Amino acid sequence: MNPQKPPAIGTLFAGIGVALVRPRVWLLLLGLSLLFGLAVATPVHQSALEQLASTSNFGDDPLRSGQSMPRWVLDDWTRLHQSAFAAASAALAPLLLLSSLLGVLISAGWIHAALRGREDHGLKQFLSGAGQHFFPMLRLWVVGLAFYWLTTWLVWGPAGDWVMSQFFPAGDVDRATSESRALWGQNIRIVFYALGLLKIEMLMDLARAAVVSNGSRSALASFLRAIRFWIWRWPSCFLLVLAGLILEAGWIALIVRLSQILDLPLWTLALSVPVGRILLRGGRTSGLALLYHASTLPGPKPGGIGVHPPKGMKGPLDEGSAWGTPA
Amino acid sequence: MLVRSFLPLLTWLLGAVLLYAQTPESLSKTLRYSMDCQLVDHGRLIRGTELVQWTNKTPVPTKELWWHVYNNAFAGRDSVWMKEAHQYQYGDGRLPREWGGTDIESMQVTAFGAQEFAPEDLEWNWVAQPGAPNDQTVLRCQLPMSVEPGTSVTVRVKFQAKMVPAYRRNGWGSGGYLHAAQWFPKVGVFERVDGEYQWNCPPYHMLVEFYSDYADFRVKLTLPPEYKDKVVATGEQRTEPEQLPDGHWQYIFWAEDVHDFAWTVDPEAILMELDFVESEWRDEAEENKVAAALGVPVEEVRPDVTVRMFLLLQPEHEHLARKYFDALGKSIYYFGLWYGKYPYATISLVDPAHDARNTGGMEYPRLITGGARLGKAERSQSPSGVTVHEFGHQYWYGLVGTDEFRHAWMDEGFCTFSTQRVLAKAFEPEWSTYTVLGKEFYGQAPLQWPAHGSKDLRSLFTLTRLESPSVSGLPPISAELWRPDSLTRFLAEMPPVSYWPQVVDDAILGERRAYRTDFYQPVSTPSLELFEWRLRGVNTYARPAMTLETMARLMGEERWIRTMRAYHQRYRFKHPRPADWFEVVKEFATGAMVGAKNADQQMEIHWPSFWRQAYDGNEVLDFGVHRVANLPHLIDAADEPQRAKVVPNQWDVHIELRRLGQFEVPVEVEVNWADGASTQHVWDGSQSTWALRIIGSNRQVLQVVIDPHRKLVLDRNWLNNTYTVETDADLAFQAGVRALLWAQAMMHFFGGIG
């Protein structure tokens, strides 16, 4: 482990920079987001055309603003056009799996761009990097599923139930004598679970970075490297990811507020929200990869040059970074 | 010391003697109870003795007394209740943590009419029920002689009621909370049923509630010291509580003209009191409307009653006291204004302990249980909704004592209808919410979460589960990969962006949610014969409420006010049947017309036909616009006989409507024209179609609205009631974009796309 500790926030911004200078990538992703989203939205839109468009005079706040809706209209509509809603829901389910798998590809692209192709901002380089690392990362995705299962099992399974039973009769929050106590118990469990998922997500990103950074093809070895790295540098990882999530939440809040103040049409959210989230997620992934890579660069050997990155490639910091230029 | 030991007994005996003095007035009551009870075992066991005087008000003698001993529903799995709970999978099949039950230690007759004699043990037995031969919720005792019409019998019962951990409607919580309902042996109703006089005393069923005769109660409760001033009950205290030498406290509650007695204690709760002051909730416009409809001065309908409101509240819900009292005050006001003044001196409201929530949302005479949760949004009708509803039962169940076994809709339906009216009149409409970490926020998802349960291979699509198909020789895989709890769902769906932010729930129209359930059994079907538990909610609550709302809107507010008032006043302290209600409807609603004054015609509503379809039948009510068209008006071209010529500024207007259900009722139709005019029409609804065709009209039709004033709440599909020629694609676009935003958020959460 390199004793050099790159600053987490600076690395995050470096990662965001990696994403920001690749507009062709994020525009493509935005396009995909719209395209996939339309598979869900189209049946709903069509159904609304048939059921609502010729109907007005609801006598309540109109739908036009996209803000307010009489509940009975929603109820009648969803009930009477169940098939459209079922179709939309059914369309989404495989898209979620597809998103997850595409997410692997995209992560590979971002990490490759951050670690091995800083100068080339083109789509081709992004996609070729993504393709180059896709299969090890796919194996990693499968390994990740096991860890998701483990986390879920720990928190919601017998282990979590045992912990709850130490505080509540039979582990049942409904049997707490106080509602506040029950809420606390329940919420702590939920937050703990969310943190567990976040940790797995970080480990996955670190393992992906390890795949690219070390040129490894072994998912398990990369995952173990990620765990090792996490143990040493978890505050930095956590800070970086947390800062990234805060930025993302801030972006969403800003856009929503702006659209209210400026009375922007609803469809503008379908462009502005995802674009920011794609960028910031790309930034987080790239930032974490940069952090991993910079921290695992071997220190200078006496009389020699560092062996990393392999195969004579340029290191990610060779062109300079937020925390300085290597000697 | 001896005197002191016997003092409570002597006091009780004196009370009992006073209560049972055989005066003509006392005989006018069917039932009188005098009880002496003690709470022991940390609030989980009640030891009691009751002296019950029953007067035979029928023209036939009887040698039996039948009793409800409903606490035995939870004495074991053999009861009718528990068997039904298993059948309907109540609580996902969960059984009570501990069994309860009532032991009858002795049952003695002490008097026949004015003739008292030495207590004599009675023979009694549990009445076996079909399918549950060991049920012990109905007890039959043999009397040594007949109780002749107009005479009475007095029986003393010594019992011990072990209460269950709150399971359903009664029971205890671990902090000492106890909701004592159905806790004492209670006499059934001797009346004419199915053409003959018999005991109407069914066992305790899961799907239905209670039915008893009106009675006077005097109940002495001896409570451990920690329960001092932590008790509410049916009835009021007329003497100060007294502390006994052993530190226990003795309370005496009196209640007249009620058909049940319940009480609740909780050492950890706060007991609050507030006097109902009518002027604080006064609604002058409504008062004037009611007075005008009844043709009486406003002062006569104004519910200026003296009622003390008690609230037994959980300390962590102290901030909700205002909401509870407000809901109670508004209920006393509006129910009193519409149906007649609340006749009792007190009303008690219980906010159940957290681990005894299953006792919440219940009604007993002069005592109701509500229910509240922390983290509720301001625009939520909690706990107001449940409070208004349970108070409503003081009128529909308490004062009008319908038979909940056979006609559960008569109390729940009327109560739901009245509740929604109070909520609509006196409360802000509720907004839909979602919950994150126990706190509610406004919004509603545009689409349903694509959830698939275990054993469903599709759950892998949402990465929630990994399920393998059944392959012989291989062990099945079933693993939960991810659980969408409230926080992760929030992160996945990003509601501030993707949800409908403001979904406004009209209290009355909210009942239309019941249409999600298929109404395949008529309202008249006894609850016990319903195929599904879910249908009980529909047929007993929402559907009758919508029927009543439809009737009210069809007959107009004036007639409706008179109808409801008359029905309530006539059957106060009585046991009406559905036919009684319908007689009142016929009396007051006959002559009600459909059609505005400027309509092309008006049509009288045939109430027997309406009632037959809405109550006995299972007809679907649905009117819809089939086609609206402004076709060019053609005439033969003079110069070319084979060709038609379009006449400028003239159209052939075709308006075609359909009755898509079988329910026939007259309905109004409004046609809005391009020149700004609006014409009103009435369709009698008897044919399956209706058409309005104007050939060569000099105006185009813009919009057709069936039932423009939304009177037919029973119409299953309101969206097809309106057709606008120039469609408004904006509405559809907004809905589509909402779905798009939601899908994008989900896909971003899953993989960074979106």
Topology:
The complex is a heterodimer of chains A (327) and B (754).
Chain A: H1 8-20, H2 23-51, E1 68-70, H3 71-80, H4 82-116, H5 123-156, H6 158-165, H7 179-214, H8 219-261, H9 267-296
Helix pairs in contact in A: 1-8, 1-9, 2-4, 2-9, 3-4, 4-5, 4-7, 4-9, 5-6, 5-7, 5-8, 7-8, 7-9, 8-9
Chain B: H1 2-19, H2 24-27, E1 31-40, E2 45-55, E3 62-68, H3 80-88, E4 101-112, E5 115-121, E6 123-126, E7 138-147, E8 152-162, E9 171-172, E10 178-180, E11 186-187, E12 189-193, E13 196-200, E14 215-223, E15 231-233, E16 236-237, E17 242-243, E18 249-258, E19 263-265, E20 270-275, H4 284-294, H5 298-301, E21 308-313, H6 321-339, E22 346-350, E23 362-364, E24 367-369, H7 384-395, H8 409-426, E25 430-431, E26 433-436, E27 439-442, E28 465-467, E29 478-480, H9 486-493, H10 495-498, E30 502-505, H11 533-555, H12 557-570, H13 578-589, E31 593-594, E32 603-604, H14 607-616, E33 623-636, E34 644-659, E35 667-673, E36 678-683, E37 689-697, E38 701-706, E39 722-724, H15 729-751
Parallel strand pairs in B: 1-14, 21-22, 22-24
Antiparallel strand pairs in B: 1-2, 2-8, 3-7, 3-11, 4-5, 4-8, 6-7, 9-10, 10-19, 12-13, 14-18, 15-19, 16-18, 17-18, 20-21, 23-24, 25-30, 26-27, 28-29, 31-32, 33-34, 34-37, 35-36, 35-38, 38-39
Helix pairs in contact in B: 4-12, 6-7, 6-8, 7-8, 8-11, 11-12, 12-13
Could you characterize what this model shows?
The complex is a heterodimer of chains A (327) and B (754). By secondary structure, chain A is mainly alpha-helical. Chain A has one domain. Chain B is α+β, with helices and mostly antiparallel strands and 754 residues long. Among the domains of chain B are: 268 residues, tricorn interacting facor f3 domain (Immunoglobulin-like), CATH 2.60.40; 101 residues, Sandwich (Immunoglobulin-like), CATH 2.60.40. At the A-B interface, α2, β1, α3, α4 and α5 of A face α9, β30, β39 and α15 of B.
